[in-house]
């Protein structure tokens, strides 16, 4: 202790002593500069130059001032507070940051403009966490703006303190608390659980004030964990219950309607409708823009087969739903087996995409066009022949006139000579001129003959047919089709169908008309027997057809006459009415056919008699005729008797007499036909059962078609009522006897014998229906009872249904 006290005394004494040497301020400054130059000392001068600080002291003062200002201070403020240059402040601040520990770290932010401490950042994050727990969410951008940081730096600060200081999660620069996310998820689950139809998710989120980012993630999680039974289609939420209902409705729609469009399937969120439907409907048929059922396809195929059987056509659009696209209709029709080629021939053809036209209908069309081509070719050839004859007559007249002129000139040049010499010389000159003319004429004929040798007639006919054309234009083809086929008339406004028909038939029609014209012209030019043989063949075929019809109708008439008592004067009178009708219709047609053949084969001009190739009421000849042929006029009779062999003429005139005059007996007429055939050297073909059955079936179909046509038209006269009733009675007669009947069409006076003939064999109910039709028709036609017209339609429908039945006992 004494030693210590001694040392203290010595120190106090030294301190009380005055310095012996003192340095001036300049000396001190120079000394410091020298030490700095030698690197022995580092000091920082204040801006006033009166003080200097070591770097470590600057760092201490920076740390003190930052702590004094709450852990954050700008370098500009530090520069003022410490009173040193900015460069020294920045340098020592950076050194302070580098040397600081992570716990008490220092950071330069905002491009080195501010210095702050880690505990400052922890503090603001603690404050942020307090506010975040209250609000549930906040944006990092808002925090950056609030605290004056860049967003990226603020994001880094937040992320380093998530889970420790900040009890939250961050997504896309937004902070959420767990409680906030849980609340959003709970609300979201409630809202979307109540959804029963597809909804647009952004609309729902806006309507209920959801946080979109949290809600989208939560919705995906709820769907994946099967909390919500639904799925996302883009930004649309579709609940499974709606999908099940929609798909069930799609099944139901397909089952009820037989088709489903792809557009409708897309609306129901079904991308591959065929794959979807075939699970329940394995026989569904896929098309380009729709799927159809097998039943619908079978319905179409049945209609096509029916058109093939009936030799007609069908518009399949009438059988299919109108919503089916045209391309799918064409594709479905193209799948029909009837359109597939069996060998090299198809049963039907696809026209204008939606029409199936049977080959039989096309054959009927070509047959009609063939008849028209023959008629037009005959007329054109006749006109060509007439023009050629007139030209030849004109040429011959010119030659005669030229010859007369030359004779006059020769006579004038020889005047003045002696008469005797003149006579002799004149005579000799005439002989010489005659000889010369004869030789020259022969030589000219020889030259013409040599030029026309070989296939001269064919060349002339081809050149003539090339100059003259009878091929109809498209409009004419359509007009002819409309006039021949009532079914086509209904489609006259359908340009696609008409164009398709014209396109298909066009090449064949060109060939038909060109061939017919060439044949007609060559026949006229050659004058050979080929055309006559062809004409005779056509005549014999048509004669056989007409005579077969007459014989079968005679069988039906005889069947009816068996039920009429010969003592019943009224009944016999009605029977005679039916017999007269048969003679005036079928018998007269047969007589006119024979007369046309005789006139055409013998080049006879008969007034009002059509060509054999042009039936009455058909083709243009029939249109030009004022009325059909009903009798043989006296003028035509004289022409026949003067131009034909006596046996042929008498047989033909007798045939007309039996058909139109005398006691009017159908049996006498048919008995005379073999006599006429013998006069024409034409064998009669035997009527076989197959031909008879075909005619009977065809006659019934023709009668039914005519009945449908007449009933479809508005009735404007009393005769139309009688005509419809006659058609019904003809069907009724054929239904009971199996034989066709032909009855008068302008009266119903004969109906009593028809109904009386079957009153014992027909059920009473059926007979009352037929009797009702006859009574109503009589009241309208005979009594002119206008009130009965109101019951006509109902009575007609009942009678029509009756004659189509197979068993009349089924009539209720």
UniProtKB/TrEMBL annotation:
Domain E3 UFM1-protein ligase 1-like N-terminal: 3-277
Protein name: E3 UFM1-protein ligase 1 homolog
Listed PANTHER family: E3 UFM1-PROTEIN LIGASE 1 (PTHR31057:SF0)
Entry's Gene Ontology molecular function annotations: UFM1 ligase activity
Annotated ranges, domain E3 UFM1-protein ligase 1-like: 538-687
GO cellular component: endoplasmic reticulum membrane
Pfam families linked: E3_UFM1_ligase, UFL1
Positions of the UniProt region annotated as Disordered: 381-467
Source domain of life: Eukaryota
Organism, scientific name: Phytophthora nicotianae (Potato buckeye rot agent)
Keyword Membrane: no
GO aspect biological process, one term: protein K69-linked ufmylation
Protein family per UniProt: Belongs to the UFL1 family.
């Amino acid at each position: 202790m004494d030693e210590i006290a001694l040392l203290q005394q010595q120190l106090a004494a030294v301190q009380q002593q005055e310095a012996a040497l003192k340095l001036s301020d300049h000396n001190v400054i120079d000394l410091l500069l020298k030490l700095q130059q030698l690197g022995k000392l580092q000091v920082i001068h204040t801006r006033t130059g009166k003080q200097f600080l070591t770097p470590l002291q600057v760092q201490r003062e920076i740390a003190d001032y930052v702590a004094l200002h709450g852990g954050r201070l700008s370098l500009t403020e530090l520069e003022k507070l410490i009173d040193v240059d900015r460069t020294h402040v920045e340098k020592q601040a950076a050194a302070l940051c580098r040397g600081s520990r992570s716990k008490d770290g220092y950071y330069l932010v905002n491009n080195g403009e501010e210095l702050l401490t880690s505990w400052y950042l922890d503090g603001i994050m603690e404050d942020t966490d307090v506010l975040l727990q209250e609000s549930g969410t906040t944006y990092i951008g808002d925090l950056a703006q609030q605290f004056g940081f860049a967003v990226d730096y603020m994001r880094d600060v937040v992320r380093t303190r998530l889970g420790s200081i900040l009890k939250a999660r961050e997504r896309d620069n937004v902070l959420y608390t767990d409680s906030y996310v849980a609340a959003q998820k709970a609300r979201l689950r409630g809202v979307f659980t109540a959804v029963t139809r597809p909804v647009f998710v952004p609309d729902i989120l806006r309507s209920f004030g959801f946080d979109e980012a949290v809600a989208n993630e939560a919705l995906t999680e709820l769907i994946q964990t099967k909390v919500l039974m639904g799925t996302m289609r883009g930004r649309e939420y579709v609940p499974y219950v709606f999908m099940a209902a929609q798909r069930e409705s799609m099944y139901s729609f397909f089952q009820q309607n037989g088709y489903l469009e792809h557009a409708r399937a897309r609306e129901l969120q079904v991308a591959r409708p065929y794959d979807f439907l075939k699970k329940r409907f394995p026989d569904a048929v896929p098309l380009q823009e729709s799927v159809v059922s097998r039943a619908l396809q079978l319905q179409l195929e049945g209609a096509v087969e029916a058109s093939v059987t009936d030799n007609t056509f069908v518009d399949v659009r009438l059988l299919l739903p109108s919503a089916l696209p045209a391309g799918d209709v064409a594709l479905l029709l193209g799948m029909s087996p009837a359109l597939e080629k069996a060998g090299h021939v198809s049963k039907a053809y696809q026209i204008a995409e939606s029409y199936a036209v049977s080959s039989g209908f096309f054959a009927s069309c070509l047959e009609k066009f063939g008849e028209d081509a023959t008629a037009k070719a005959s007329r054109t050839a006749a006109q060509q022949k007439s023009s050629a004859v007139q030209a030849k007559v004109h040429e011959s007249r010119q030659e005669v006139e030229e010859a007369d002129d030359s004779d006059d000139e020769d006579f004038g040049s020889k005047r003045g000579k002696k008469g005797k010499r003149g006579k002799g010389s004149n005579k000799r000159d005439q002989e010489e001129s005659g000889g010369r003319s004869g030789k020259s004429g022969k030589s000219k004929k020889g030259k013409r003959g040599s030029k026309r040798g070989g296939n001269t007639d064919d060349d002339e006919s081809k050149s003539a047919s090339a100059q003259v054309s009878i091929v109809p234009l498209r409009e004419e083809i359509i007009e002819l089709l409309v006039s021949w086929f009532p079914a086509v008339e209904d489609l006259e406004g359908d340009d696609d169908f008409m164009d398709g028909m014209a396109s298909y038939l066009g090449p064949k029609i060109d060939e038909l008309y060109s061939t017919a014209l060439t044949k007609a012209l060559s026949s006229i030019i050659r004058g050979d027997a080929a055309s006559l043989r062809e004409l005779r063949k056509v005549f014999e075929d048509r004669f056989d057809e007409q005579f077969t019809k007459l014989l079968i109708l005679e069988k039906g008439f005889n069947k009816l006459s068996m039920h009429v008592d010969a003592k019943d004067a009224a009944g016999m009178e009605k029977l005679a009415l039916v017999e007269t009708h048969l003679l005036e219709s079928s018998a007269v047609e047969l007589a006119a056919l024979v007369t046309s053949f005789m006139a055409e084969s013998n080049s006879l001009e008969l007034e009002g008699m059509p060509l054999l190739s042009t039936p009455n009421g058909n083709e243009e000849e029939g249109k030009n005729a004022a009325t059909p042929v009903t009798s043989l006029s006296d003028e035509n009779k004289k022409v026949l008797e003067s131009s034909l062999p006596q046996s042929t003429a008498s047989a033909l005139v007798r045939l007309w007499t039996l058909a139109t005059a005398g006691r009017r007996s159908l049996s006498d007429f048919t008995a005379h036909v073999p006599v006429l055939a013998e006069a024409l050297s034409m064998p009669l073909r035997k009527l076989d059962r197959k031909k008879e059955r075909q005619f009977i079936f065809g006659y019934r179909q023709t009668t039914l078609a005519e009945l449908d046509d007449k009933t479809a038209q508005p009735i404007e006269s009393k005769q139309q009522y009688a005509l419809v009733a006659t058609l019904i009675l003809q069907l009724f007669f054929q239904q009971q006897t199996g034989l066709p009947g032909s009855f008068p069409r302008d009266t119903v006076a004969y109906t009593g014998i028809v109904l009386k003939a079957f009153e014992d064999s027909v059920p009473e109910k059926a007979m009352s229906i037929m009797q009702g039709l006859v009574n109503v028709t009589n009241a309208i036609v005979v009594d002119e009872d206008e009130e009965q017209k109101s019951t006509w339609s109902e009575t007609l429908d009942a009678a029509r249904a009756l004659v189509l039945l197979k068993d009349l006992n089924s009539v209720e």
